[in-house]
Amino acid sequence: MSLHGRYRLTRVINARGTYTPLGVSRSDDVVASTVADALKDFFVIDELQAVASAAIARSTGAEAAAVTHCVAAAVTLAVAAAMTREVPERIAALPDATGMPYRVVLPAGHAVDYGHPLVTDIRLAGGKPVLAGRDDHCTITDLEQALAQPAVACLLLLSSRLTRGQPIDPTEAVAAAHRRGVPAIIDGAAQDMRIPELLATGADLVLVSAQKYLASPTAGLIIGRRDLVAAARAQERGIGRAMKATKEGIVGVIVAFEARERLDLGAWRARQDAKVETFVARANALPGIDAAAEQDPAGMPFSRAGLWVDPARSGLDATALAQTLRQGDPSVWVMDEAAAEGKLLLELVPLGEDEVDRILVRLAEAVS
Ligand SMILES: *Cc1c(COP(=O)(O)O)cnc(C)c1O
Fold first, then answer.
1. Which atom from ligand 1 is nearest to the alpha carbon of 18?
2. Which end of the chain has fewer beta carbons closer than 10 Å to its terminal beta carbon, N or C?
3. Does residue 160 have a pLDDT over 80?
4. Coil/strand/helix, residue 365
């Protein structure tokens, strides 16, 4: 019997993207079976971390990398690494930052809530978030002003949907931090398909989730400068104990990166585009629904299906449609952030043809 049957769990079709409350992603068979093997045995964790570092370095061109529990942990550990470097007394003292530099500058519009406030991750290390510019606008000059007083790091966020206001050019922001002698850290949580691009900004550390599009077990990756990666790992003797990577997480990351290297990105992209195009064509045949493919705004290499709901013709508005989809069995979850403006967005990346069919059947039932 399936887990869902045995424990009476809600069956889910997840068209909401890499969403933490729904279990984020689906691992493939190779990752799942390798992780199952890992759970049955012992390892020298430092050796696993070294293999992961080499696999990530090979696949992204980075100097080094380390695996942490998740990206929330990676942000805290990256900030801690900038504060303590490898000084044992400092590592043992955190989160008490007495006598250490602790200001962490970030553009105000990057201080997002991705389930909890990003600034909490800074505070957990003993750092003090300093917001540059305004919520809707942060220029390089604003960033330089905030960096005029001693800072320990500059944190930037790269996200498809969360950052607010005018985008700030990450390469210029990194350069501004470097002019002040401050390391730049990029939280690129879901951007695992663009790691070389994020490294090319000159960032000292790039942080990404391994459980998002890479689809390994939950893990965060700290990628970049060898000395800072080592200082992040050294936190395991301090605040990092509660944020450590598991053996199954590290093994999952290694095999997921090997699979990523073998991936024919062109063919993968074509499959995703075809799935979205078929969905859009069929959704457009439904009363009161206008559908179109939308490219990811942050440059991830796939599109999503946008649905504009006209309540006069469909009989219900976008919010009610999202609710109806969620209440059925299986429970269908869509991106409903723009529902008040009449729009729903569906991400089909992890879904099979049968699931895409199910969504279309449920849409047809809801609007007729
Ligand atoms: C998902 C996400 C995180 C957190 O990642 P976890 O690995 O779940 O801790 C951090 N920042 C952003 C922008 C995210 O989207």
1. 1
2. N
3. no
4. helix
